[in-house]
């Protein structure tokens, strides 16, 4: 069926594999990025203002994501030549919020067939049947989808939050902890529940001074910013 909408992949599943032509050559996702984190994100269309502001932001932050061992991969339902012309326009003509001469070096997928967009549930008919919404898929080094964000066409993404998610996922994996609301590196982290870390009584009667327990199910401990940063990108 033409433009058939398929079920969106879920957190904890393998990222669906595909091959695509991009502004940086052909790629196979997620296989080409095995051992790295990756962010696959869609935008509605080239030569549009919200998308331009987003690409300038992503381009300006690209090294920050590279330092986290994280590869950016963009997508829209546009052709390769449209992508190239748009990215050239961004670099040569657009200055926004102090950003200028922004060169986009990460791959931008051509998806005029809508195959990838439909596979990843990026086309939301209630929003548009011809454009992808602003989807963000966070994929870990094993090719597993770990977080999914969706934004409508009219709302630009929060890129500091996107970066925080990568840092948070790596921290949770590296230290075997959970992270509370609004967590930032250096904040207290949540100790795993009693079922996986001793009994409730053990937690409440902790004598090490390492934990603060608000009740049997909610205990936190210190984790320094330096400790977090020492393992980022790994």
List keywords for this structure.
234 residues; Antioxidant, Horf6, Chain A, domain 2; Glutaredoxin; globular; five-stranded mixed β-sheet; alpha+beta; 6 helices
Written account of the structure:
With 234 residues, the chain is of the alpha+beta class. The protein is built from six helices and ten strands. It folds into two domains: 18-165, Glutaredoxin (3-Layer(aba) Sandwich), CATH 3.40.30; 176-230, Antioxidant, Horf6, Chain A, domain2 (Antioxidant, Horf6, Chain A, domain 2, 2-Layer Sandwich). It has helices spanning 49-67, 80-93, 115-119, 159-175, 200-204, 225-230; strands at 18-22, 25-29, 37-42, 70-76, 108-110, 134-139, 145-151, 189-190, 211-215, 218-221. A five-stranded mixed beta sheet has the order 5-4-3-6-7, covered by helices on one side. Strand 6 (134-139) and strand 7 form a beta hairpin. The radius of gyration is 20 Å and the shape is globular. The mean pLDDT is 91.
Q: What is the structure about, briefly put?
A:
The chain is an alpha+beta fold.
Reported for the largest beta sheet, the result is: 5 strands, mixed
The overall pLDDT average reads 91
Let me know the CATH homologous superfamily of the largest domain.
Answer: Glutaredoxin
Number of domains: 2
Strand elements, count: 10
Write the layout of secondary structure elements.
Elements: E1 18-22, E2 25-29, E3 37-42, H1 49-67, E4 70-76, H2 80-93, E5 108-110, H3 115-119, E6 134-139, E7 145-151, H4 159-175, E8 189-190, H5 200-204, E9 211-215, E10 218-221, H6 225-230
Parallel strand pairs: 3-4, 4-5
Antiparallel strand pairs: 1-2, 3-6, 6-7, 8-10, 9-10
